[in-house]
Every structure is written in C-alpha cells, then in structure tokens.
Amino acid sequence: MPPKKKRDDTLPSTMKELKDTLWRAADKLRGSMDASQYKDVVLGLVFLKYVSDSFDERRAQIAAELAAEGWDETQIAGQLDDIDEYTGNGVFYVNKHARWTYLAQHAKGLPAAMGQPFKPIGELIDDAMDFIMGANPSLAGTLPRIYNRDNVDQRRLGELLDLFNSARFTGEGASKARDLLGEVYEYFLEKFAKAEGKRGGEFYTPAGVVRVLVEVLEPTRGRVYDPCCGSGGMFVQTEKFLEAHQSEGSDIAVYGQEMNERTWRMAKMNLAIHGLESKGLSSRWGDTFAHDNHPDLSGAKGADYVLANPPFNIKDWVRRTDDPRWKYGVPPAGNANYAWIQHILSKLAPGGSAGVVMANGSMSSNSGGEGEIRAQIVEADLVSCMVALPTQLFRSTGIPVCLWFFAKDKSKGAGGSVDRSGQVLFIDARNLGTMVDRAERALSDEDIARIADTFHRWRGTASAIGEYLDVAGFCMSATLAEVKANDYALTPGRYVGAAEAEHDGEPIAARIERLTADLLAQFDESSRLELIVREQLGKVDV
C-alpha cells in the first residue's frame, strides 16, 4: 500500500483560515504605508484575480461552444481574443500580460532579455491595470496604479501574489472562486475600516446595520439608490438578499454616488466582483449636494428603494436655499442631516421606500429649523418606522445612531396587507447586540430578525409570521396625533415605555417586609463599621 500523503498544514483549509492567512500576509506589506495605502494595494489584487478568473472561465466556455459547433483548433484560437465575446457576456476582457497566470509566473519580476531591462512585479501589475482599463472603458480611471512605488516591498508583494494564487479551490470552478474572492474582499474592507479607525467609516458600514436596512425593506426588484455609497456595501447586501430568496440579481438596477474618489474606486471594484457592474450600475464620483449625478431618478422614474448611511452632522456642505429638494424646509447651514433626508425623499418613486442611518440627534433636534422640517415630513405621512440602535456598533464613531424608514405609500396593498396610513412604528433596539471586543458591538442574526419581523408583522407583508402586537419596552405603533403631542420627536424611548418587570411570584407585602429587613441590616452593619474606623483613626499618631 502506498504511503498516505501527508496533509500540508500550511495551507488554509477553511474560509476563515483563508481570510486570516491572506490578511496576515497583506498586513506584512504595510511597512511604511498607512492603512489607506495598503488597502488600495490589497483590494486591487483581489479585483485583479477576480477579472482574471472571470476571463478564464468565459474563455473556456467560448472554446467549448465553438468546438461543439465543429470549429477546428485554429478557428477557435482566432476567436478567443474577440473582445465582444467577453464584454457581451458581462465579462471584462483581460490582455495576456494582465492575466493572473502571467503575473503569478513572474511574481519575482520579469528577467531582463533582448535588451529589455528587468521589470519588478509591481511594474507588471501596474501595466496589467493599464491593460484592463484600456480594454474596458467602464473601468477607465478606477483601478489603482500604485504597485511600483518605492514604499511597496516588491518581495512581499510577490509573496502575496503567490498566496492569492492558491486561493482557487480545486474542483470548485471559477464561479465559486469568484464568490470566495468576493467574501475575501468584504472581509478586507471590514478589517481595513477597523485599522483606519474614524476614517474607516467613510467607506464601510457595519454588516449588521446594513442587513437590518435590507431585511426590513426587502428589495426584490426595481431601482436601488445610495447617494453616498461608500464601497458599495448596501448594493452588495441587496444582492445577497436576492440570492437568499432565490431571486435574480438582474431584477435590480443599482444607482450610486460617492464623493471620495478613492472610496468610489473601491465601490467600482467591489460591485464588479459581486457581478453588479453589468446590471445597471451607475456609480459616479462627485458631491451629491453640489451636483446630483442622477437628476432623472425622480418621480415616476424614481428609486424603488433607497439605502444610505450619510456622514453624520456635516457642517461644511454645499447649500443653496432655492434647491427644489428642500420641499419640507431649508436645512440649516451647520448640519446636513435634513439635507440628506430630503434629498433621499426627492428620489423615491410613488411607491418607494427608504432606510437611512442617522445620528440620534436627528430624531429630536429643533436647532436651525430642523424641528419644523421634521414636523412637515411627519405630517406628510412619510415616516414608517424609527429604530433606536445600541451603542458601539460603529467602531469609527461614538455617536449613537438610529434608523429612519420612509414610505411614500403606507396604505393597504402598498407593500403590505395592513393599512398603516397615519401611523409610525417605533422600535427600541438599544438592548440588542453583544460585544465582540472592548470597542465594538455586533447584532446577531436573531437581533436582526427580531427587528425585521416586527416591522413585517406591523405592515402585514408576505413574509410576516403572525400578527403585530405592541411590546412594552421594545415596540409601539403610534398615531400621528401621538407624535404631534410629543412635539414631533421621533425617539422610540418616548413611545415604547419600559419593559414589564418579571414577576417572581413573591407577594408584594412579603417583598416589602424582606427588603426593609435587608435595608435595616445594612444600616446596622454600616454603623458597626463606622465605629471600627473611628477607633482605628484614634490610634493614628499624628
């Protein structure tokens, strides 16, 4: 019997091991680079592997299809580099010198030959990025060209390339490999957000928070918009929701805008890895307030769903008092919160709905006319649900946050079987979540489901199980009159009240007698200790 082959314990055997191994390798690249720099280096490599795997898979499909039609090898070879065969199927075309196999083969650099100087791997990768952008106009200006800089360790870069090369799982197929790379990309975004601290919040929203938005809104078709899309997490989670509910991603078209150029580049790569680039993506770099890149996304052609996590409490923003988006009042110059809210409302289709992350202050602030704007929005019956979230969900900020949910139509049949016109659902979820470390809390699947299920029962959606009931301390359905009586403050704690204390069966009279006896015993003990302390102080030689 041949000797049993020894397992290579150095290779990652699970997805967690793979991600952790890649992260440790990537972290070694940091050197003199800060998190924002080496983030671009690593995420660019993930994207490069994705497009190469996609290209290789499509190339094999073309060869198989042509062979089945009777083409000979020479004819097939001539057709394999027809760019339209790739782009027409939603696949990026990759030049032979940009393919992963070529780069992996020269991970230590391209040797000097025939009068040509030695090329380090960083220069080859930069060239590869140029080749890909040149062949695919939708990627023009989006891919990083930073691999041949002096502060990038070329030896470690080559080692990281080798490690990514082993990420393909034998027998799983390129599609599965791309799914895994997509998961790695998201994992890296989260890790980089933690590494960058407060700046990380510019491109990353915690997955649990995004899931609450998506699970509540249940986006299954139509136009999905994010006016401050960061790295595209809202869109990616929408795609995952569709997949979990056996729906096709082609049922949605995504529209986004992002102000930060580097973050916009991440969004383009992230969405492409998840197959959203070819499904109606229109993500552009630019300031949403200064120049709305999607002016036609309104009215009957507006967004069916808006999901957004705008930057909180922006003081310096482009403000025009005559902007038609300010239908419910001009936002104050010193805070853009209600500018974001009104911009989002202006983008909703007649039956559209939205979920927005906001700072807690937005629920009750009266400064700069915000109270009047909030009152107008409430009276227009646009607020469907308010959720107070627990603290420390965002590593990037200590500001407590909440979720606003809007609906253009809350009547029976408009997404639910219960007419909720003139009502607002309040959910106090501040006690949910568990600490994953000293600085960060996370929402569990059960926490997310509890919030979403409560909303679905309230609306009577197709996914609802059971009927809605107010739960003291957690949720309450309030009328607009009740909201008005609270001066239009939308803080859930004002409405849900306190949770009922659990009754242990002890009679009230017996409990009072027991607690009184305990208190008197504590008084006696306190007196005894006081005498001892006084006695000891008297012995101190001053």
How would you describe the overall organization of this protein?
- With 542 residues, this protein is α/β, with parallel strands linked by helices.
- The chain folds into two domains: 15-195, N6 adenine-specific DNA methyltransferase, N-terminal domain (Ferritin, Up-down Bundle); 203-496, Vaccinia Virus protein VP39 (Rossmann fold, 3-Layer(aba) Sandwich), CATH 3.40.50.
- It is 42% helix and 11% strand.
- The chain contains 17 helices and eleven strands.
- The chain has helices spanning 15-28, 35-68, 73-79, 84-87, 100-105, 121-135, 154-165, 174-196, 207-217, 233-244, 261-273, 337-347, 370-379, 445-459, 480-485, 493-496, 508-538, and strands at residues 222-226, 252-258, 282-285, 303-308, 348-359, 383-388, 401-407, 423-428, 434-435, 441-442, 475-479.
- A nine-stranded mixed β-sheet has the order 3-2-1-4-5-7-6-8-11. The protein has a two-stranded antiparallel sheet with strand order 9-10.
- Strand 1 (222-226), helix 10 (233-244) and strand 2 form a beta-alpha-beta unit.
- Helix 1 crosses helix 8 (174-196).
